[in-house]
Amino acid sequence: MKAGAPCRKDSLHMMKKKGSFLSKLLLTYSIAALLPLFCITAVLFRLKWNATKQEMQSAVDYTGELLGVQLESIRNTMSFISLDLLSNEKFLTAAKGLNDSESSAYENANNYSTLARAISSYSYSSSSYRIVFFSDEGYFMTNEGYNRQYNYAYRLPQGSLEAFDWINTARTNYGKEILLPVSDVSVPNVDTESFSLVRSVRSPGRVIGFLAVQLTGENLTQLLETGGLYDIEMMLLCDDKVLYQSSRFPGAKGGAADPDALRETLKDEYLVSVSRPQNSPLCVVTIASKNNILHKNWEDFAITGVTGFSVAILTFLVICVFAHMMSSPLTLFTKKMQDTTVQNLSEDSLEISRVPFREIQILYAEFSKMRRRLDVMIENEITLKTLQSKERLSYLQAQINPHFLHNTLNIIGIMGADVGDDRIYDSCQMLSQVLKYAITEKESSFATFEEELENTERYLQLMKLRFEDKLTFKIECDEEIRRQKTLRIILQPFVENIFEHAFDPSHTQLAIEIWGCVRNGCWYISIHDNGAGMPEDALLKMKEDIHEMLQEAAALRAPLRENANIGIKNTLVRMSLYYGNDFRYTINNAAAGGFIVTLEGKVGESFEQSEI
């Protein structure tokens, strides 16, 4: 402890000096990078502001001119339609007759039909222009739906014309056209938004009706939303009277407005354009907020940011060159830590003497000590696990191995032969071979599937001596699986289990089939019979016991308790320990009857390659 104290003091002192160096480094970076970055950003922002302002002003001017041309064209079209109808002699004659008090009802009906046909000759569905005619007497007709909704008998409600101020003007302006503000209450019986041109229909000396031509529908919507792409607001005027004003256009809605005065009022906050079509009473005022310019500059500011960031990166790279001498030892140390694995814990390739800083030398030394301690601990743990696994498998093998002496069976077999009973002799000889295969030393606890199948066949021949014609069996396995290494006594316990449950009053014949093969790098063994199978409750209990035993084996806990079906259970535990996660099995009663067991493992791999 005392010896290490000066080292720690030296470390703290050097860390303080390092912190002072970092402070100077950060100050240098701020002066060298942030100041140029700020200047470049300001210059580029100003250039971008001017470019965007010019672009927006061009868009405002173009939108105003475009709207002016479109509106003038629409006005001329509506004016032409109204004049074309008024120049139609039949139209005027019918209008006069409809308002003549001396005309009969029949004549008035014909006059109404003539007017309706003339108006409907301009199809509303194809032109988007609605035409409406009405008179003081209450007659009303429109080209919308070819006037099917109205007829000669229909009359406007009394006094309904008094709600429209423009009618009084139309009575006294000798049939001149009047442009009405965009509204949904421009004329009687019309409640959709429209841009309207109206005029009176006159007979010499008096007004005989009123004619309105209206732009409606999608054409009107598209016209009024022309500036939406650039967030441009608009105001439409006719002889300084406001016909339309978009929702975000500043100032009070409707009334009168002077375009030149508007320009002076709005120029501080908006980009303004005033467009007047030639020889037209119309005037279009379009504006765009200067805040939009700022907004667009911020959206496009990524270019400026990238430029400034590049300058900062270049400066940072220069600083990194000077910082390399300090950071390289730590980088090397970090790489050594990342490359450390269980396999190279014992290797110590760190050259402490070449490290220029005392603090990092201490880290290197302590890290080397930690690697050596970890290597010893892991080696001890592996040794312990290996011993536990060997002990576990040895214990399970001992539970299955029978404790009989095959020499005694040989003597009994010879005695049977002496008295002429060959069945006794054959039985003892086969049982002796089975026991000789089962009673092996710990060092010989492995076998091939060929040896396992031969031992199982001898056991089945022994059982056939007992059951005679009641038992038949067939073993079919590929040569490749017969050569595979496995544990000893893994097939016989499953065959023994068959005889415990095979026979009952309805199952007096027993056929056993064993087959095996190798596919896709795995070996497969199936043991199947046609007997009675296990009772479902016993099968379920055995599966639960096997699952519990496998969990205990995986945890390397205390030896398992003895219980029913210990042969099958211990065999599955042994195979699970030997093959590890590559081992799989199924135990079930077959749907067609009998008991079926399938075993599967990976070719050439085991839980532990050395003998357990």
Task: Walk me through the structure.
It is elongated and about 155 Å long. Helix 2 packs antiparallel against helix 3 and helix 12 (422-438) runs antiparallel to helix 13. Helix content is 53%, strand content 17%. The two termini are 47 Å apart. The chain has helices at residues 4-86, 89-98, 105-120, 124-127, 166-172, 217-224, 259-266, 290-299, 302-339, 358-400, 406-418, 422-438, 449-467, 479-482, 492-501, 536-554, 566-579, and strands at 129-134, 140-142, 178-183, 194-203, 206-215, 233-238, 241-245, 270-275, 282-289, 446-448, 471-477, 485-487, 510-519, 522-529, 584-589, 595-602. The chain has a 5-stranded antiparallel β-sheet with strand order 2-1-5-4-3. Among the domains are: 88-220, PAS domain (Beta-Lactamase, 2-Layer Sandwich); 395-401 and 440-602, 2-Layer Sandwich (Heat Shock Protein 90). Mean pLDDT is 78; it is low at 1-19, 557-562 and 605-612. With 612 residues, the chain is α+β, with helices and mostly antiparallel strands. Strand 8 (270-275) and strand 9 (282-289) form a beta hairpin. The protein has 17 helices and 16 strands.
Write out key terms for the chains shown.
single chain; 612 residues; alpha+beta; Beta-Lactamase; Heat Shock Protein 90; five-stranded antiparallel sheet; five-stranded mixed sheet; 17 helices; 16 strands; 53% helix; elongated; disordered N terminus; disordered C terminus
